[in-house]
From TrEMBL, chain A:
Family: Belongs to the ABC transporter superfamily.
PROSITE patterns: ABC_TRANSPORTER_1 (PS00211), ABC_TRANSPORTER_2 (PS50893)
Gene Ontology MF, one: ATP binding
Keywords: ATP-binding, Cell membrane, Membrane, Nucleotide-binding, Sulfate transport, Translocase, Transport
Annotated ABC transporter domain residues: 3-237
Protein name: Sulfate/molybdate ABC transporter ATP-binding protein
Gene Ontology cellular-component terms listed: ATP-binding cassette (ABC) transporter complex
Residues spanning the signal sequence: none
InterPro entries for the chain: AAA+_ATPase (IPR003593), ABC_SmlMolc_Importer (IPR050093), ABC_transporter-like_ATP-bd (IPR003439), ABC_transporter-like_CS (IPR017871), Mo/tungstate-bd_C_term_dom (IPR008995), P-loop_NTPase (IPR027417), Sulph_transpt1 (IPR005666), TOBE-like (IPR024765)
GO biological process annotation, one example: quaternary ammonium group transport
Automatic annotation (TrEMBL), chain B:
Membrane topology summary: Multi-pass membrane protein
GO molecular function: ABC-type sulfate transporter activity
Database matches in InterPro entries: CysT_permease (IPR011865), MetI-like (IPR000515), MetI-like_sf (IPR035906), Sulph_transpt2 (IPR005667)
Protein name as annotated: Sulfate transport system permease protein CysT
Role this protein plays: Part of the ABC transporter complex CysAWTP (TC 3.A.1.6.1) involved in sulfate/thiosulfate import. Probably responsible for the translocation of the substrate across the membrane.
Keywords: Membrane, Sulfate transport, Transmembrane, Transmembrane helix, Transport
A Pfam cross-reference name: BPD_transp_1
Domain (ABC transmembrane type-1): residue spans on this chain: 68-271
């Protein structure tokens, strides 16, 4: 099922949690909503589920405006961050609940419901735990029960709010791979929220980067990592360094010297240069480069991170050096970013 | 295969790692013995001085039987009514915001605070055939004051806070997401209430019922004003005990008291078992 979010705005008591958000989700796609805390990820997910009503705009399921459909009719599977399992029901009853509450005509027989439930529990690797109560399960197991419960209704869309948020790194990685497998096997259109970028980049077909109630960028992992379209995305996804620069006649300048990077179409004025600390070229002699004094250095796994102080304004940037580089305190290092982007200063 | 052993009949619940199990258990037992067990044993011992035939004669006396019937019957009805309306009141107080909510919330406790005799007199004035409510009911042929119905009303009044105050905190604890989860799974509002919310509230409701019922059985002050106290019709067991006392018939008084005690104990025990059975399932 395709889902289209069209110019949706959501206010809570006049406070805008989402401003004019639009998003097209293709059928069978696995989408990640990624953004810092408070950026509106949960709000967007709840709007799609029908748990909240948009202040403006509409959400389409296929061709149909979903606004007129109740939560019950939307047929979405929602997995809550804190599982929200029914604690007075066994695992099997939790999973079968969605089938059991169907109106008489479409409700499967009790035996069929039991069979479906144990099939799903097999899928989430929990067979044998049918008779347990949620209180008798570990966090990761509860999470999987919640997922099985949501999938039991054969949802058109599966929505997961920080599905692995409360779990330790090891379990997270395991469940991540496993969610991808389940998605590929079942083909549900899936949207999941996370603020772990590694999770988003690794798992999703496309990543939606959000900030302060807006969508900053939508794209594949490669697109958002390699060609971020805003300073926010550059800073939020992966590691980045930035340096205030000046555009003059199509050249970038730091303080009083050109750094050998050209931007033919940019108008003159102040700008900000962004690059990845590891994606730099070290230079022996400097005609057209960024040069600075090493003020701090630390070892990070297989490389060395150094902080440089650039020019008279003492701007600090971080770059990565090979371990064998003889950079010592106070020594001078010259470099030029290999891949970079400038964003013109606003106003 | 489960990894845990099956619940094998009766055994002590394993003491937790938090220290003090022995000390607190010892204290509780000593305290309960002093406050409850010794006076009650005195009661039983006293009535035992009667001898079995006399005891049996008092126990099966028609007036005693009637009084016990009235006491337990009205207390059960009142507790049942309170369970329904008390739960609704608790629900409304927790779930809705409306002007005057805090006032109503405070009002729920009034029956706790009011001297029961005051409540009895107030209710009698209201429900007497010339009273505000009584005069409205009289043309319909409903007599409240001086009938068992009056007793039920007094006990509803007295018992309401027990249900509201035990159920209210549990409603407050209900996770909104659990209801939302039920809705996304296709459950109607009615199904969510009956299948998700109610089972979660059941233990608290049972507790509220037990408290309201126990209070109703022992209630004296408010009832004697509205009941009219006609033997065989609206005379409650606690009043009968007082009457026996006033006749210096201590043996009979303690005999009736002992019977009340045994019946109450058995009923509360059953309610408690019911509850631990339902609790066990939630973990
Ligand atoms: N029910 C609500 N009432 C008022 N404000 C709300 C409500 N829900 C969310 N907000 C506000 O809307 C904004 C977005 O919240 P949202 O829960 O969508 O963030 P999020 O991206 O999911 O954050 P997190 O990663 O911390 O879960 C926040 O500023 C939050 O305070
Ligand atoms: Mg959130």
């Amino acid at each position: 099922m395709e889902v289209r979010v069209a110019n949706v705005r959501k206010e809570f008591d006049r406070f805008p949690a989402l401003h004019d958000v639009s998003l097209d989700i293709k059928s069978g796609e696995l989408i990640a909503l990624l953004g810092p805390s408070g950026s509106g990820k949960t709000t967007l997910l709840r709007l799609i589920a029908g748990l909240e009503k948009p202040t403006k705009g509409a959400i389409y399921f296929g061709e149909e405006d979903a606004s007129h459909r109740t939560i019950q009719e939307r047929n979405v599977g929602f997995v809550f961050q804190h599982y929200a399992l029914f604690r007075h029901m066994t695992v099997a009853d939790n999973v079968g609940f969605g089938l059991k509450v169907r109106p008489g005509a479409t409700r499967p027989a009790a035996a069929e419901i039991r069979r479906r439930a144990s099939e799903l529990l097999d899928l989430v690797q929990l067979s044998g735990l049918e008779k347990r109560y949620p209180a008798q399960l570990s966090g990761g197991q509860r999470q999987r029960v919640a997922l099985a419960r949501a999938m039991a209704i054969e949802p058109k869309v599966l929505l997961l709010d920080e599905p692995f948020g409360a779990l330790d790194a090891q379990v997270r990685r395991e469940l991540r791979r496993w969610l991808r497998e389940i998605h590929d096997a079942t083909g549900h259109t899936t949207v999941f929220v996370t603020h772990d970028q590694e999770e988003a980049l690794e798992l999703a077909d496309r990543v939606v980067v959000m900030s302060q109630g807006r969508i900053e960028q939508v794209g594949t992992a490669d697109e958002v990592y390699d060609t971020p379209n805003s300073p926010f995305v550059y800073g939020f996804i992966g590691e980045s360094s930035s340096l205030p620069v000046k555009v003059e006649d199509g050249q970038l300048w730091v303080a009083d010297r050109p750094i050998g990077l050209s931007v033919p179409d940019a108008p003159n004025g102040k700008a900000e240069l962004y690059f990845r600390p590891h994606d730099v070229e070290l230079l022996e002699e400097c005609n057209g480069c960024i040069a600075g004094t090493v003020v701090a250095s630390r070892r990070v796994a297989g490389t060395r991170r150094v902080e440089l102080e650039i020019g008279g304004e003492r701007q600090r940037v971080e770059i990565e050096l090979p371990i064998e580089h003889p950079a010592a305190q106070k020594s001078r290092v010259a470099f030029r970013p290999r891949r970079w982007k400038v964003f013109l200063a606003e106003g | 295969m489960t990894t845990e052993p099956a619940q094998a009949g009766w055994r002590f619940k394993a003491p937790s790692v938090i220290p003090g199990f022995g000390l607190t258990l010892g204290f509780s037992l000593a305290y309960l013995t002093l406050i409850i067990l010794i006076p009650l044993t005195g009661l039983v011992w006293r009535s035992a001085s009667l001898g079995w035939t006399d005891f049996w004669a008092i126990a099966t006396d028609r007036r005693t039987v009637k009084a016990l019937e009235i006491s337990f019957g009205t207390a059960l009805i009142a507790a049942a009514v309170n369970v329904v309306f008390g739960t609704i009141v608790a629900w409304v107080l927790v779930r809705y915001r409306f002007p005057g909510r805090r006032v109503i919330d405070a009002m729920v406790d009034l029956p706790f605070a009011l001297p029961t005799a005051v409540a009895g007199i107030a209710l009698t004035t209201l429900y007497a055939s010339k009273g505000w409510i009584g005069s409205l009911l009289a043309p319909l042929g409903i007599k409240v004051a001086y009938t068992p119905l009056g007793i039920v009303i007094a006990l509803i009044f007295i018992g309401l806070p027990f249900v509201v105050r035990t159920v209210q905190p549990i409603i407050e604890e209900i996770d909104k997401e659990v209801e939302e989860a039920a809705a996304t799974l296709g459950a109607s509002r009615f199904q969510t209430i009956t299948r998700i919310l109610f089972p979660g509230l059941a233990p608290a409701i049972v507790t509220g019922f037990a408290l309201a019922f126990a209070r109703g059985v022992g209630e004296y002050g408010s009832v004697i004003f509205i009941a009219g106290n006609m033997p065989y019709v609206s005379e409650i067991a606690p009043l009968l005990i007082v009457i026996k006392l006033e006749e210096y018939n201590y043996a009979a008084a303690t005999a009736i008291a002992t019977i009340m005690l045994v019946i109450s104990f058995v009923m509360l025990l059953v309610i408690n078992l019911l509850q631990s059975w339902s609790r066990k399932r939630y973990g």
